[in-house]
Amino acid sequence: MKQFSEVAVVGGGIIGSAIAYYLAKAGHQVDLFEAGQVGSGSTQAAAGMLGAHSEYKAFGASLHSFARTSQKLYEEAETDIRRLVGIDIERRTGGLLQLVFTAEEKARVSEICSLEGVTWLDQTSAEKEVPGLTKSILGAVHIADDVHVTPAIACRGFHSAAQMLGARIHAFTRVDDVVNEAGWYRIQTSKGEWQADYAVIAGGVWSNVLLERLGLGTPFYPVKGECIAVTNTQMPLSCSLFHDQHYIVPRNNNELIIGATKVRDDWSTEPTFGGIQTVMEKARQMLPEIEKMPLLRSWAGLRPQTIDGKPLIGEHPEKKGLFIAAGHQRNGILLAPVTGKMICDLIDGNAVPEVWTKAFRVNRLNIGEE
Ligand code: FAD
Fold this sequence. Notes:
This protein has 370 residues and is an alpha/beta fold. It contains 11 helices and 17 strands. Strands 3, 4, 5, 10, 11, 12, 13, 14 and 15 form a 9-stranded mixed β-sheet that branches. Strands 1, 2, 6, 7, 8, 9, 16 and 17 form an 8-stranded mixed β-sheet that branches. Strand 16 (312-315) and strand 17 (322-326) form a beta hairpin. Helix 1 runs parallel beside helix 10 (332-348) and helix 3 crosses helix 7. Flavin-adenine dinucleotide (FAD) is lined by residues 10-16, 33-36, 40-43, 45-49, 174-175, 202-204, 206, 210, 225, 227, 259-260, 301, 303-304, 326, 328-334.
């Protein structure tokens, strides 16, 4: 028997969950379909940094303004999620310390140091901020707004809040096809067929399967990231440490998350000996005392990458009512709220900055423009 929905969201990672939340909040009837457990894809592997400044160096460009907007949306979402479902997404506000080892690196951070909320600290001041920090640095940039959340909990927060607002969450329900009928979409799932006015594909790196059927090629490839966690009962860490895309992120439960490698086109999700060795060495360079901390576990996840470094977010050029939101690479946790809100605004016909709709248009990679 066919069932009805207004908006069918495919994928229950942080992106699909945030989309469901913003749509449900705006009064839409949402059905979210997730092939496995909600949040079990790339999202559960992430460190959770909201690194709008540390990740995007082209300040003022489309991605930076998108990321900054998302950072700010997290403040509101955090309060709303707590109010609706009592979940604390563990947004820690100590910011991030980007370490600077060489004169060349120091020259590269001069622009960021002129931004609001960003402070240059010499080695002595940085060590006061983080006892045990390496003495080999020239200094560090403290970025107050680059805070972090716990990704699995943030994802649960979004979809639980969406559920509280009326969304239906269908875990262990794979979508096998999204078929454009006259004015509606047939959503074929492993548990039966649905009829929806709108469909949103937010399946992370696995979105390729459905996009290929829809004539949008296979725009995503995986970049595997390996991480470890240690228990830290020795030195309270008030902020994340960051250098050369490697990091140490403190969690509320005394864990330090240490990551991450970048292995292109590797679909495996087991960490390797060499990968773990790399992240350990990078962590030790930042915080030498870390080598004394008990090792807890290791894991790996797949970042959904696109060739031009930007996600695909928007409506299919010919199939009206079909939206895509995937390819957030190493920043999907950061970009989840603004992506959810953007999809909701596009469906509602609200204004969305043109710089974003242009930068993230979904057919740009197919037609070889960038
Ligand atoms: P996913 O979380 O992968 O979710 C997609 C979901 O869709 C999956 O659960 C999948 O089962 C489901 N799905 C796919 N196809 C179908 C289908 N046909 N039917 C039903 N369900 C389907 N980002 C940050 O912002 N900050 C960080 O600090 C950070 N650290 C990271 C560290 C590592 C090691 C890794 C690997 C990633 C990190 N990221 C970080 C990136 C972030 O994890 C991703 O960008 C983000 O999780 C992508 O979310 P998503 O919802 O698009 O994908």
